[in-house]
Amino acid sequence: MSIVSDLRAVLRGRDFRRLFATRLVSQFSDGVFQFAVAGYAFFTPENQTSAAEAAVAFAVLLLPYSLLGPFAGVLIDRWDRRRILMVAPMVRGAFLLLAALLVGLGAPDWCFYAVALIVLGVNRFFLSALSAGLPHVVAGERLLIANSVTPTSGTIATFIGAGAGYLMRLVFGPEHGGTALLLVVSGVIFGLSAVIASTMAKGLLGPTYDSARPQAREAVRNVVTGMVDGVRHVLHLRSPAGALGAMAAHRFMYGLVIVMTVMLYRYYFTTDAEAGLNHITGVLATSGAGFFVAALITPWATRRFRPEMWIPLMLATGGVLLLVLCLPFHQAGFLVAGFVLGVTGQSVKICADTIVQRDVEDAYLGRVFSIYDMLFNGMFVLAAVVAAFLLPADGKSYTVLVIASLGYVAAAVVYRLVTAGADRRAPEKVAG
């Protein structure tokens, strides 16, 4: 079954189409924003970024997801998710306009990153609500298809948005004024997703009402207890726990590779900031192609092997090919590696999303996806910190490359040990 057939199958549902459109618009905007931030932090003529400064930038941009995740999960399990999708884009759009003003006026970097913290925190809250609401608009037998085409299509939309950001940067210029204009465009586009979300019916996306569940205000006061309950719930389910662990391992190894790649294209392959950005855009493009291919092959593969088999196969394959392709430290190898890790990462994510949504009770979905987000971003930040200690000034490090490659293979082995025998059901049936 092709991704076109998959899309046709799930797009028959009107409510799914609206949720899907909300995701695409928001993630296209996010691609423009991420490109603007990356260009500002790493590839503007005014900035000279070291590996340690790169780690700080990644930490500033990703830690809000982890810090706000527990609170987001508790609220997503109690607040109307449709309303979240309406309000969050407007809040995010307003702060994007503020960020543009700060950059345009030449404010200190810490002012920009402080606003970026809020922007990305709101975005993670928004994406968690999208994921938790998906089972309410898709029948159970089509959930794997939906998890193949929606997050993957959203990620592809992010890549397309980043490509659009690149083209706009050529028009607006690489200086801070051009970055400010990119942020304005991103804010306006993201606000449109609220309009789309408003067309869905009230209460459509859940959460399921439970009269015994504490109100949101009380739940926030007891957020730690709520998160402990979410962790305990997952730990009693070996397959979701293993899926979260596999995803976390991928993000750590991927973080090592990304920080190394950024530094290589900034200082090793070329010392010109604009040339480095142009060249690393090729890695971005091949990664996007890898995400698309993952959407094509994962439904087919999981009909034969189940997600619990496809995850370790992808991790091991990614680790081996990463070492083979990148060991010579040539640009061509990193272009192909971008594709390989795109396939690996998105395949693991599709399977992990499906396993969590399939095996975790709806009352816990918000909290579990917040745990998911904490791991997703926290492990990347941890990898950036580790890379800052290991990478030389020009980014070329055999040590980091070997650690990432062997880490992928080790994660595959550990995942199979954790999930072996946990689920003996037949392979997933993907509806035509």
Question: Main sheet?
Answer: none
Question: How many DSSP helices?
Answer: 15
Approximate helicity band? over 70%
Order of helices and strands: HHHHHHHHHHHHHHH
CATH architecture: Up-down Bundle
C-alpha Rg (nearest Å):
21 Å
> For the terminal residues, how far apart are their CA atoms?
7 Å
CATH superfamily: MFS general substrate transporter like domains
Structural class call reads mainly alpha
Describe the structure.
This protein has 432 residues and is mostly helical. It has a single domain, classed as Growth Hormone, Chain: A. The protein has 15 helices and no strands. Mean pLDDT is 82; it is low at 424-432.
What would a concise description of this structure say?
The chain has 15 helices and no strands. The protein has helices spanning 3-10, 14-42, 51-76, 81-104, 109-133, 143-172, 176-197, 216-221, 223-235, 238-268, 273-305, 307-326, 331-359, 362-390, 398-419.
Detail the topology: elements first, then pairings.
Elements: H1 3-10, H2 14-42, H3 51-76, H4 81-104, H5 109-133, H6 143-172, H7 176-197, H8 216-221, H9 223-235, H10 238-268, H11 273-305, H12 307-326, H13 331-359, H14 362-390, H15 398-419
Helix pairs in contact: 1-6, 2-6, 2-7, 3-5, 3-9, 3-14, 4-5, 4-7, 5-14, 6-7, 6-11, 6-13, 9-14, 10-11, 10-12, 10-13, 10-14, 10-15, 11-12, 11-13, 12-13, 12-15
